[in-house]
UniProtKB/TrEMBL annotation:
Pfam families for the chain: Med11
Subunit-structure text: Component of the Mediator complex.
Keyword Magnesium: no
GO BP terms, alphabetized: regulation of transcription by RNA polymerase II
Similarity comment: family membership: Belongs to the Mediator complex subunit 11 family.
Compartment annotation: Nucleus
Gene that produces this protein: MED11
Function: Component of the Mediator complex, a coactivator involved in the regulated transcription of nearly all RNA polymerase II-dependent genes. Mediator functions as a bridge to convey information from gene-specific regulatory proteins to the basal RNA polymerase II transcription machinery. Mediator is recruited to promoters by direct interactions with regulatory proteins and serves as a scaffold for the assembly of a functional pre-initiation complex with RNA polymerase II and the general transcription factors.
GO molecular function: transcription coregulator activity
Keyword annotations: Activator, Nucleus, Transcription, Transcription regulation
InterPro entries: Mediator_Med11
The protein's name: Mediator of RNA polymerase II transcription subunit 11
A GO CC term assigned to this protein in UniProt: mediator complex
């Protein structure tokens, strides 16, 4: 299975055509069943084509879903920058949190440290 986005889109396009083929085969089987004298061989052929195509579609879709699951969980994957992007975003959040905590600590430090008398207060007591 190709790893590039173009190849993945092309593969999904092929899967879409296979789904259309499966639906067409199911429709032909139903048309044959609707006849007054259906031919068992035709029904079997269309049903077999439908089932084989459906199994192939399921296999290919499972591969795509597994790929997307791997990429979306942030695990490293060749050709994907999702994990690095996620790490960067988390680092920015950690920096913001650290800044917030430091600001809180600085505020507490100023509240708890003994305050120096203001110059205006000293001048008033000298008079």
């Amino acid at each position: 299975m190709g790893s590039g986005p173009v190849e993945r889109i092309q593969q999904l396009d092929i899967i879409e055509r296979e789904i259309a083929t499966a639906i067409h085969s199911a429709g032909l089987a139903l048309q044959e069943l609707a006849k007054e004298k259906p031919q068992a061989k035709q029904i079997e052929t269309h049903t077999t084509t439908f089932m084989k195509t459906l199994m192939e579609v399921e296999k290919k879709m499972t591969n795509h879903i597994n790929y997307l699951t791997q990429v979306s969980t942030g695990q490293p994957h060749e050709g994907s920058s999702y994990a690095a992007s996620k790490d960067l975003t988390l680092a920015y959040h950690r920096i913001d949190h650290i800044k917030s905590r430091l600001a809180t600590l600085e505020r507490f430090h100023h509240e708890l440290s003994p305050q120096k008398p203001h110059a205006k207060t000293l001048q008033m007591s000298d008079s």
